[in-house]
Amino acid sequence: MRPLTKILVLALISTLSEAWAQMAGGPPGGAIEAVVINPTEPTVVYAAADWSGVFKSIDSGESWTPINAGLTQLAVNALVIDPVNVEILYAGTASGVFKTVNAGRNWTACSTGLPKTLTDSTITMLAINPVQPRTLYAGTFNRVFKSVDGAQNWIAIARHPQITQTSSYVALAVDSNSPNTVYVAAGDRGLLKSVDGGKSWRTIVRESASTIVLEPSSPAVIYTSGSGRGEILRSTDHGQHWSRFKSLPGSYSLALAPGSKEPARLYAAVSGGRVLRSSNRGETWTEAVTATISEIQSLVCDPANLDILYAGTAGGILKSVDGGATWHSNNAGIANSNISVIAVSPSQPATVYVGSYGAGIARSSDGGKSWSPANAGLVNPDIWSLAIDPRDAARVYADRKSVV
After folding, report:
1. Which domains are seen in the chain, by residue range?
2. How many beta carbons lie within 10 A of that of residue 394, not counting itself?
3. For 218, what's the count of Cα atoms within 13 Å in the CB-facing half-sphere?
4. What whole-number distance in Å separates Cα of residue 67 and Cα of residue 199?
5. So what's the pLDDT on residue 145?
6. How far apart are CA 137 and CA 63, in angstroms?
7. Which pTM does this prediction carry?
8. How confident is the model at residue 379 (pLDDT cuts 50, 70, 90)?
9. DSSP secondary structure letter of residue 247
């Protein structure tokens, strides 16, 4: 969901929450914003949803359990795991940062020093220092904050002169070999770099930057992509020089997942729900999946098996065990739909339809108390709008990405 849209929706919920009740059996909503794999035990996977909190799987994503005890804000945008103590995770939410020290059994708020207002407290990204994991960075839409005590306290770090109140930070990364080196993708303001832990910044890419990924085994190798460009830039010298690759078949890259054991392998998720694969650090690409899948929000590789991929999408979790060639849904335990539109029958008000990004259409005939899928014949699960014929409640029109 777009950041501004999310803020407006959250503000509405905050204002009107006393007038609303969750319908039993209904889809609570939320796209999967982040997927994190336990680096020492890859069968343990965590997923963050932007309306439903955090979920955990102990069987490589085959089934999921919500782990939200103490997590008072379920709009989760970012999730990181401590690489040294894998029992510790941090969640960036619409109300600041939460921390668990017991693999998700319970969470505590850790937001001292972070902004308090709704528009400023939304944490859109997190990064952890891989060498000194008590040092973390948290990004809001236009500020970056730093903690050196495991998220107990936060301070705002220097803002680049180009960053204004209307700018947007969208991604963070920390160099594992040089932990004071931090990168921030700042949307239309480009890619920024700090070599002193955020005290000062300089611009190293002046074009739009929406993604920043460092190669795990060689963080001198950096990949970035920008909204609207449809291409990937690569640097092999910490951002001093860049190589530009042929535009990918999509309007922009949504997620990058480099392999840690096989650094030349790179996956890219591009607009339209397509996954591409490169075996030479992005110089050439092949289609990893031929069928269009739901729009991908996040993409990660299993560190022990690079053919295993997890994709966080608008409709839940997808998993591939063959390098992205085929995918299957892994959503047992995740009641999660990114609701985009609701339509109520004018002649039969108890009949309600909801459309979602990634999960198609659901129908209720009892005013939302229970729901059933209504997707027979629907080839694209991303629904933008719905309309019910006022003269015939059985006739419903769906707009799926401008194709009715």
Report:
1. 3-11+24-329 (2.130.10.10), 339-399 (no CATH)
2. 9
3. 15
4. 36
5. 93
6. 31
7. 0.76
8. low
9. P
